[in-house]
Design goal:
By secondary structure, the protein is mainly α. The chain has 16 helices and 6 strands. The protein has a two-stranded antiparallel sheet with strand order 1-2.
Length: 389
């Protein structure tokens, strides 16, 4: 019996050593190696559909996952970098989507070029972010969350009731597909189709390029003075203001940039879905994007992208598992979805790929708790320390 226990203990120790060695090797790898590996995997995924290994439904899930990765990257600026909880973030997504639908659909017989529509949708969302930031940036915590939640609902109800412009609950249909340089060479009519994006595979690579470029830009921004100012405000706003950071200006910049990214993602979503309606911009969508940021790791750019992909692919996995096992089981897929998220938050609160600061805060003693412990060791009557820790 003792020999068997010693053997099991030895195996466990060897496994732990191997795991530690793997972690050391992984941590020693340069960041650009992981970035290239992720891009290669993402770029090679559609090829599985071409050879018939992956169904087209999964390719569509990939497109939507990448669009939500853009949304998560935008919300991460406000929530992960600056520390502001925005529960109405999907409203900026709606601004971008409806701007695209109005400028590139039979609704008003307007057919703007793709790049012009993308820029216009992004600017409209940024203007909306600027306007909502003016009265709300002096709020904190729960008050800010309530105001942003109300803002999201106001936008959705306005879309429903503004029937002459938005078609109300019926939405806008027949959105034209993106045209890249379709009118640049009108003499060559035969190749015009090559510049019209109307297939899931083409949409996938278009959105993938946008995600990669945005991730690179946000990584550079995160390491700049602006990103460090956002992090300072997130950790201690009073100390950041005392250090010379203009809090309102820095917060406004983060809100406007995140709103622009949401509008950009909304424009791509409108082009891809070909039809939009108010049901696509419910409050629950804002909650899901918040879950993506939290699950992936607040403040971590690779983490929030991984969280978006995981949460978008998870319902499809549960749906297929339910279809293979029992059709009635699919009714409970959202319950399983929620339980898995709760378990993940409890087991790994810092996220799948956490930021260094959040990882340290999740696994080490909070300095504020240590300071409270030291304060409790003071003799309040005499004002002298009784014990040093």
């Amino acid at each position: 019996m003792a020999t068997r226990m010693e053997t099991s203990s030895g195996r466990g120790t060897a496994t732990a050593h191997r795991g530690a060695a793997v972690r050391r090797i992984a941590s020693a790898m340069p960041a650009w190696v992981w970035w290239l590996a992720g891009i290669a995997i993402a770029a090679g995924f559609p090829l599985l559909n071409v050879i018939g290994v992956v169904e087209t439904a999964w390719l569509r899930v990939g497109v939507v996952s990448l669009i939500f990765a853009l949304l998560a990257l935008g919300l991460n600026i406000v929530m992960g970098e600056t520390g502001l909880l925005n529960l109405g973030y999907i409203a900026f997504f709606a601004f971008g989507a409806y701007t695209t639908a109005l400028l590139s659909s039979p609704k008003f017989e307007i057919h703007w070029p793709f790049l012009a529509v993308i820029v216009a949708s992004t600017l409209v969302a940024m203007v909306a972010g600027f306007l909502i930031s003016l009265p709300t940036l002096r709020l904190r915590g729960d008050y800010l969350a309530i105001v942003t939640l109300a803002f999201g609902e106001i936008v959705r109800l306005t879309i429903i009731n503004l029937v002459p412009l938005t078609n109300g609950p019926n939405g806008i249909t027949g959105i034209y597909p993106p045209r890249l340089f379709a009118d640049a060479r009108p003499a060559l009519e035969g190749i015009e189709a090559w510049f019209i994006i109307d297939k899931p595979l083409e949409y996938y690579y278009l959105v993938l390029v946008c995600v990669v470029v945005l991730a690179v830009l946000l990584t550079n921004l995160k390491n700049s003075r602006i990103g460090r100012a956002w992090n300072a405000l997130r950790e201690d706003e009073l100390a950041a203001i005392s250090s010379g950071i203009t809090a309102v200006r820095a917060k406004m910049l983060s809100v406007v940039l995140s709103a622009g990214i949401a509008g950009f993602a909304g424009s791509l979503f409108a082009y891809y879905s070909n039809v939009i309606s108010p049901e696509s911009f419910l409050f629950m969508q804002s909650v899901i994007v918040v879950c993506m940021v939290v699950l992936g790791g607040m403040g971590s750019i690779p983490g929030v992208m991984l969280g978006a992909i995981a949460l978008q692919a998870l319902p499809q996995l549960i749906r297929e598992a339910a279809g293979a096992a029992r059709s009635d089981f699919e009714v409970y897929r959202m319950l399983i979805y929620g339980v898995l998220i709760v378990v993940m938050v409890i087991v790994r609160p810092e996220g799948l790929l956490p930021d260094k600061i959040f990882r340290r805060e999740a696994h080490e003693v909070d300095p504020r708790e240590l300071e409270m412990t030291r304060q409790s060791l003071f003799d309040l009557e005499e004002g002298e320390k009784d014990l040093e820790v």
